Amino acid sequence: MTLLNHSMSAGRPNPIGATFDGEGVNFAVFSEHGERVELCLFDPTGAHEIARIQLLERDGDVWHIYIAGLTPGAQYGYRVHGPYAPEEGHRFNPNKLLLDPYAKRITGNIAWNDAIMGYTIGAKAEDLSYDPRDSAPYVPRSVIVDPTFQWGTDAPPETDLADTLLYEAHVKGMTAEFPGLTSGQRGKYLGMASEPILDHLTKLGVTTVQLLPVHAFLDDKFLIDANLTNYWGYQSIGFFAPEPRYMDQAGIWEFQAMVRRFHAAGIEVILDVVYNHSGEGNHLGPTLSLRGLDNKSYYRLLDEGRYYINDTGTGNTLNVRHPMVLRMIMDSLCYWVEVMHVDGFRFDLATVLGREVEGFNRNGGFLDAVGQDPVLSRVKLIAEPWDLGPGGYQLGNWPHPFLEYNDRYRDGIRKFWRGDAGMTAQLGKRLLGSANVYDHSGRAATSSINFVTCHDGMTLRDLVSYNQKNNYANGEDNRDGKDDNYSSNMGVEGQTDDPEINAARAQRQRNILATAFLSQGTPMLLAGDEIGNTQGGNNNTFGQDNPIGWVNWGDADEDLLAFVQRLTQLRRDHKVLRQTRFLHSRPRSADGKPDLFWRLPNGRAPTREEWENDATKAICVEIRTSSSTPYYSASDDVIFLVVNNGDQITVELPPCPEGKTWEVILDTSAPKDGPQCITGQSTQINAASVCVFVLVPIA
User: Fold this and answer.
1) What would the DSSP string read from start to end of 666-678?
2) Residue 590's pLDDT band (boundaries 50, 70, 90)?
3) Could you give the 3-state DSSP secondary structure of residue 412?
4) Are residues 561 and 585 in the same domain?
5) Pair 277, 317: CB distance under 8 Å
6) 435: Cα separation from own chain's centroid
7) Are strands 359-360 and 448-450 parallel, antiparallel or unpaired?
């Protein structure tokens, strides 16, 4: 086939991808072991291949060509010739149409036809066989785009970490049932940044929205066979392309418009990104992109041969140690910051990215590259600090400026409020930003992402409503998902009309939320927890693109929402709750007082034995500005916090300075009460509650 009315020339090896310059398109693609690369162009419908052009220019391992007159909207793909020798790590098959890893837009869905496999399904030799069928009718197309956008005066909010409140949300789950949206907004980027949702987030005090994966992803075959879909999106097939199912008009401008509207409201956008693996699966998976372009370069292989290292649990692991794979990830990150204006990233199974030959290395290639990059140095970076590989749990070992998901915080707070024995010492560590984990190498107290719930697990309401997971809708006989959620149904499994149980559940939700917002570190709220959203006990909704996985806004707990709004305001009002320096009970130079003082309810400092005693159910703490903070005065804020998971108690309050008295500004057992001054040196604290006191002038 030939391409009419378009002149072709050598083009350039940079930038990689399909780049429109106003007059034509430069194509550049990496393949180290490929022997011949063909560019396939399609008609406007994408149904018919109208040209197949060999890329004759090769600079190093980047193949390239320039086609004048080609414009945005054109659909394309690649075919790569080379050895099909799986036992040597090579899986080239030019019969398989391949997505451009740098495609800025992808159109069409994968049809799970046998032709998308590089080998013959059913063959005795399995993947050592070879399939000659054309996969083009069954796979998506890459699309040429012009990513320029009228950003106007858009600027990143650049919210200080100390002021940050993360809000983890799913584009579809957040918008599917949100009141006041149009049909064209539901499940779409434009709905995510619609006025009703922006109003909700602004009133809630959210500074930073963290979106579940929006890189183009596929629906796994086993989910399709079970009449489910890949709801969460952790199966990327395009690291530059926004997921098209969230578009209303098939334009990447919709994502850009969403970001611009978030920024106008003062809200940052962080993306949950999956650079640890791709959606191509294990050795029996489809040939869609990286596998057919250069399997041996893009993936980590066992003994450089047939099988894949599987540190991710998904069948494959990207070979981040390869310079061109590392470049692809860095190019992708910078593209989303510079062209799409996002404000940061949360790295899924991030230990993969820091693993070198010897294991995880906090000075490894990827982490060094990110640390020195002038674009990425100004955005927020969050690590999920574990994977399934050897030595994969690396909590606390990430270098500045990474923040980390803190599962010790999640589990410790859940266990404490469930009533597990001996958890008060754990509570104390978590309230202080897990200094025992993060206070090293110049890291800040904001390094800990303090979450109790996230997309992966039960919602807050389900934590207090179910003893056991309820994942039967997933079609795996309730075998999937985490078995121990450190949850409690408080008397009845699931929903109930019992007013006493519901009141106890409501208070425990308030206690957990209050703990999260009163802890040093960076708090994160799961979308829907502010209104008591339930997933019916399902703790693994990865395939539930339906009301089970969506936020049920129609059944919102307005009292809980008002309480969360009060918590976010309290945190904003009191800087002592959101410090960047750790607290270690050291005397302050301004007044000689310790920045932290732990007390038992009787006012005495607890001994080590009392910290660890199962009978210790309540702890009190007096918090001031950290002694290591360079600029503060002795008149700075003081907070006295009481956390009680036992019966009603009497608490001795700390001595007051002359002319001051203690005022309780929050009591989770009386969430609608306003501030109340305390007369005397002791006060009653209700059972299973959290109270916050501040010093105020005597009236």
Assistant:
1) EETTSTT---EEP
2) confident
3) helix
4) no
5) yes
6) 23
7) unpaired
How far is 442 from 233, CA to CA, in rounded Å? 35
Q: For residues 55 and 65, what is the distance between their CA atoms, to the nearest angstrom?
A: 6
In a domain? residue 264:
yes
One-letter amino acid of 267: I
Q: Is residue 556 located within the same domain as residue 639?
A: no
Same domain, 335 and 320: yes
Is residue 348 among the annotated active site residues? yes
CA distance 508 to 533: 15
Q: What would the pLDDT profile of 346-390 be if each residue is shown by its tens digit?
A: 999 999 999 999 999 999 999 999 999 999 999 999 999 999 999
SS3 state at 461: helix
List the end-to-end C-alpha distance of the chain, in Å, as a whole number: 89
384 a catalytic residue? yes
pLDDT tens track for 166-219: 999 999 999 999 999 999 999 999 999 999 999 999 999 999 999 999 999 999
Spatial separation of the C-alpha atoms in residues 333 and 113, rounded to whole Å = 32
Of residues 100, 348, 404, 529, which has the active-site annotation? 348
Largest Cα span, the chain: 91
User: Is 304 within 8 Å of 89 (Cβ atoms)?
Assistant: yes
pLDDT for 92: 98
239 has a pLDDT exceeding 90: yes
Q: Which two tokens stand for residue 296?
A: 């041996």
Are 607 and 615 contacting, i.e. CB atoms less than 8 angstroms apart?
Answer: no
Domain count, the chain: 3
Instruction: Answer whether residue 305 is part of any domain.
Output: no
- Show the domain range for 606: 581-697
| Residue 652 falls inside a structural domain | yes
DSSP state of 500: H
Spatial separation of the C-alpha atoms in residues 396 and 447, rounded to whole Å: 9
Task: Check whether residue 590 and residue 567 sit in a common domain.
Answer: no
Name the residue among 529, 518, 508 with its Cα closest to residue 669. Answer: 508
133: its two tokens: 């069928």
Same domain, yes or no: 332 and 478: yes
- Residue of 236, 241, 230 whose CA lies nearest to 217: 236
Q: Which of 384, 404, 439, 462 is catalytic?
A: 384
Kindly report which listed range (69-78, 150-159, 282-291, 634-643) carries the lowest average pLDDT score. Answer: 634-643
Do 569 and 585 lie in a common domain? no
Mean residue pLDDT across the chain? 96
